[in-house]
Amino acid sequence: MGGLGLSGFVLFSWVLFLCCIFSVDGLSKVRGVNLGGWLVIEGWIKPSLFDGIPNGDMLDGTQVQIRSVVLNKYVSAANGGGSNVTVDRDVASTWETFRLWRVSDNEFQLRCLGGQFLTVNSEDGLILATAKHPLSTETFFIERNAGRVHIRPLNGGYVQATNDHLLISTYQFQPGWDNNLATFELVIVANNLHGDYQLANGYGSEKAKMVLEEHRRSFITANDFDFLSRHGINTVRIPVGWWITQDPYPPSPFVGGSLAALDLAFSWAQSYGLKCIIDLHAAPGSQNGMEHSASRDGSVDWPSPEYISQTLEVIDFLATRYGGHPSLLGIELLNEPSAATVPLDVLVSYYMRGYQIVRNHSSTAYVILCQRIGNADPIELFQAGIGLSNVVVDLHYYNLFDPYFATMNSSQNIEFVYKMRAPQLQDLKAMNGPLVFIGEWVNEWDVQNASQYEYQKFGSAQLDVYANATFGWSYWTLKNDMIHWDFEWNIQNKYLLFSGSSMLKTPSFLLLLALGWGIHLIIMPR
Q1: Which residues does the UniProt record annotate as the domain Glycoside hydrolase family (predicted)?
Q2: Domains of the chain
Q3: Of the residues 263, 358, 450, 452, which has the fewest C-beta atoms closer than 10 A?
Q4: Predicted TM-score (pTM) of this structure
């Protein structure tokens, strides 16, 4: 081979090598941060968003139990609903627990375990647990005085217990707060849903719009993209809700504006050299019953043909709008579907259809499939044969949310990362299937009073192991009132020792270097 031919071959080989090592759309794997709590609300990330809601402990989905102060018995929907309501239980359990649907600051509908709502029989005022769809006859005023309540339907008298343990709305006078049959104790069992639905419905449309517009404007800004770029982050994973497709006028109670904010994020990403993953965090009907899926009351209704069809329309909308954008890296079809309530075959079918929709608009965008959370092995998605190219499976790794981690010390947590997480990543990599993405992880655990050094060791262990994920990783989350969940705080206070280099965001510098070296080889004197 002549000198020019040999030099050209060397140049070609060197450039090809560099292109190969940058395996994810010009990235040296994803090193990302989630923008959690921005376009999909999670109250624990910024609790102050909910501070101004009247009766803020009685939001949609709050679980309550009601006890007659005279009979000293709990109100119960037998078999979880479907028949009469009695006041005859000494101890409260699931049949005695009702989920609130908030209509106004002091008007509520009460949903039973089986999904039915309490309603008033128009003939005799008897309270039943038989309504499938709540209307005015299923709406009750709740008047509060400390832990006691009076309950009154929109039409009729106050609700009272009877001596034969029924519940009836025939009390025609204003009851006092003493021990009488129309006075009850209200026990709040759980108030753990603080998502978009609770915020918007709690404030009402006008106030919610003010609160969310200010939050979206100030919580994430161009300065944050600058910060991430300067600290070696090359990707942002952006959770969005299904109502973004109907912006700026989404269905009640959701508040418009998230689409404009997402457009801004793409613009900022392009300016600062970052890529974007759009993550459908909240699907219609809710895929996991949690606040970050915008569930109204913890129910999981997503696995129905109607909601799945609606979700596919969301994916089509996102792929149509952003499929050709230079900052798009991928679209995640669904975040954290619940293994307990989302059957695998239903999920796989949805993923296959969603993959094809994305491909209709982009041949290169990565299609990301989140594992089911709960009792499910992510290997099930590797065996499903979803898609032909640029498919990624998203795993969420937390040393939290499980009693297994509750008693671990710092060394045991670190050992778990090396002895359990690392082998799983190697096993999945060996399957030669989809790429692996640690789409959520955090430098936090259940260890009490851990030192900065212990946090540094834990964070370094995770960075070391998750570097083996073939697609990369994404920290949860950029900003959080709980400081160890806050990526920015971790970096600034050196609790997470992450040394990123901006050169790793794009191979262009190295490719130019290679090109220059190749030209040198070609023209240098022999």
Answers
A1: 220-480
A2: 23-49+195-506 (3.20.20.80), 63-190 (2.80.10.50)
A3: 452
A4: 0.89
